[in-house]
């Protein structure tokens, strides 16, 4: 991770703190306005999902690459069920949950890797979007 801006483990009690740290670090890296808000929301969704569905340890790292600001969120949970990736749109309006990955993909470049040993969510925003 070239030029790490932030690296930490988190749990349910630190979700709000993580969101504030990500917002500050992303702002310091050059994000502003709606792009900053979208990126922070996408990261927040990933962190919340890791707390809700993952198993400790849960961690996140934020860094700037030449072409992008990148955040990886990891957990040691059971992985994401394949049917989640088959949805074209989020679940119905009043259903509980089911929107996190859809929203992350809408707000940032999303890459999901994982399986039975855990999940890695990688979110990135091209630098040219916030120059």
Automatic annotation (TrEMBL):
GO terms for molecular function: protein serine/threonine kinase activity. Keywords: Kinase, Serine/threonine-protein kinase, Transferase. SUPFAM superfamilies: ATPase domain of HSP90 chaperone/DNA topoisomerase II/histidine kinase (SSF55874). Residues 10-124 form the Histidine kinase/HSP90-like ATPase domain. It comes from the Bacteria. The keyword DNA damage does not apply. InterPro entries: Anti-sigma-factor_SerPK, HATPase_C_sf, HATPase_dom. The keyword Nuclease does not apply. This is Histidine kinase/HSP90-like ATPase domain-containing protein.
């Amino acid at each position: 991770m070239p030029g790490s801006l932030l690296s930490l483990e988190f749990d349910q009690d630190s979700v709000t703190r993580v969101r504030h740290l990500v917002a500050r670090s992303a702002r310091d890296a050059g994000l502003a306005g709606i792009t900053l808000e979208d990126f922070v929301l996408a990261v927040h969704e990933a962190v919340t999902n890791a707390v809700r569905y993952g198993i400790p340890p849960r961690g996140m790292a934020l860094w700037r690459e030449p072409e992008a600001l990148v955040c990886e969120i990891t957990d040691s949970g059971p992985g994401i069920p394949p049917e989640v990736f088959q949805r074209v749109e989020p679940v119905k309006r009043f259903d509980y949950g089911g929107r996190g990955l859809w929203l992350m993909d809408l707000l940032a470049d999303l890459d999901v890797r994982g399986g039975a040993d855990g999940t890695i969510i990688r979110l990135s925003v091209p630098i040219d979007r916030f120059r």
